[in-house]
C-alpha cells in the first residue's frame, strides 16, 4: 500500500527569509510535500489585509535546496490566495503559518499577519495552524518548539480540524516547554501610545508603540498558559457574531 | 439643565474625501461634537492592519467648513489609535466608521478597514459602529441610509453597547430600505481568482478578483436581510475563540 504523502503549504508574515519559516520548512518536509509561498518582505501587523488597489508579483525563488518556494509582493492573506489559485491549483492538506517572531496570543490574533494567513486558509476549508514564539529577535531560538510543531501538525493531518476552526499556537521563550494547553483567547489590549518625533524638515511624525494590558485573571487563557511555561493552543473561528448580544439588540427600539 | 453634548469620532477606509464619510459628518454633526480622523488615501481591504515598520503622519486639514478634521498616512486602525491618543486625548462617546462604499456583510467583516476601525474602537472600550452601503461607486446614493444611521447612532449614544461588542450595519442599494434586522454573520467566502497579465517588460503580474459565494440558507443572516431589502445589524466581537472546538481539542493526544 502506498501511503498518501500530504501536501503542506507554508507561509508567514515575517517574510520568506525569516528564520522562523525555515523551522517550518525543515519540520514539514519530514511530514509531506511542501510548497512555500511567503511575502518578499516583512508584513508584521498586516492583519487580514488584501491587496486590491495594486497588482501582485509572484516569483519562484531558490533559497533552500530542493524546496519549491515563491515570494509574493503582497500580504500574508494574498500569499494564501495566490498559493491555492496559482501555485497549487488545489487545496493543500495542511497550511502552516510562521513560526512568527513574537507572540500572537490574546488580542494579537487580530493584528497578526501570521494568524490572518491561517484564518484565510480556514476560510478556504484548509486545516490551518499559525505558530508563534514570544521572541521578536531575528536570532530567536526555536529549538524547544520543534517537537510541539511536529506533534500538532501530525495531529491535524491525522484528524483534520472542526469545520471553520483554525489553531493559534504560541510558544513561551526558553529551552523547556512544559507541555501544551488548549485555551481561550485572553481579554487584553494594547494601550495606544505614540513616539512623536520631528523629521529633518521640521514636520512631526509618529511611531506606533504601546504597552500590553492583560485584563483577564482566568486560568483557562492563552496568556496564563504561556506565563506558566506551557504552549497555548487556541481554536479560532471567523464567525465574529456576538451571539450573546443579539437578544439585547432585538429589544432596542430604533424609532424608525 | 445643560444637556451633555456627546463627542463623536468619525473615520472610514475609503479616505477622508470619500462621499460616504461626508454623510456621517453631516448626520453626526446634528448629534454631537465631531472630530474626523481618516486615512489620506483609500485603504479598502486593509483589514486590521497597523503600521509598525513606518512612521505615521497626521495633518490637520480644512475640507468642510467648521469641522475639525485630520488626515493620517496610515490604516483605519492607525487612525483610531492616533485619534484617541493624539487628537482627542480621551475616549469619545461614539465612534462611527464609513459609510463604506461597498458591503461589509458576512465574511467581508474580516477584510474591511471600515469594520476594523470600528473593532479597534470597541477594543478601546468605545461604543463603535461601522456603516456600509452595497454600492462601490464614487457617486453612490446614500440618501435612503440617512434616517437609519441617525437612529442607530442615537440608540447607541443612549444605551451604549454590550461590553466588547460593536455593530456591523449594512444597507441595501435603493431608494427604499424596508427596516432594520438584527442578524448573525452569514457563512460565505470569496472564491480566490486572479486576473493574470504581463507588464510592458514581459513580467507577469496578478490582480486579485473573486466571486462572492454564499454558503448559508439561514433566514437570520445579514445576507438574507439585505437581499430582502432590509438594513442588517450584526453585533460583532473580538474574542475569536471557537469555544465549541475546545472539548474536541482537549481530547487530542499529541503524543508529547
Automatic annotation (TrEMBL), chains A, B:
UniProt protein name: 5'-nucleotidase SurE
Reactions listed under catalytic activity: a ribonucleoside 5'-phosphate + H2O = a ribonucleoside + phosphate
NCBIfam families membership: PRK00346.1-4, PRK00346.2-2, surE
Keyword Transmembrane (UniProt): no
Gene3D superfamilies linked: Survival protein SurE-like phosphatase/nucleotidase (3.40.1210.10)
Subcellular location: Cytoplasm
UniProt entry keywords in alphabetical sequence: Cytoplasm, Hydrolase, Metal-binding, Nucleotide-binding
Swiss-Prot/TrEMBL cofactor(s): a divalent metal cation; Mg(2+)
UniProt keyword Cytoplasm, yes or no: yes
Similarity comment: family membership: Belongs to the SurE nucleotidase family.
EC number of the protein: 3.1.3.5
Binding site for a divalent metal cation: 13-14, 44, 100
Pfam families, per the entry: SurE
Function, in words: Nucleotidase that shows phosphatase activity on nucleoside 5'-monophosphates.
Cofactor note: Binds 1 divalent metal cation per subunit.
One GO CC term on file: cytoplasm
Occurrences of domain Survival protein SurE-like phosphatase/nucleotidase (ranges): 8-191
A single GO molecular function term of this UniProt record: metal ion binding
Organism of this sequence: Solitalea canadensis (strain ATCC 29591 / DSM 3403 / JCM 21819 / LMG 8368 / NBRC 15130 / NCIMB 12057 / USAM 9D)
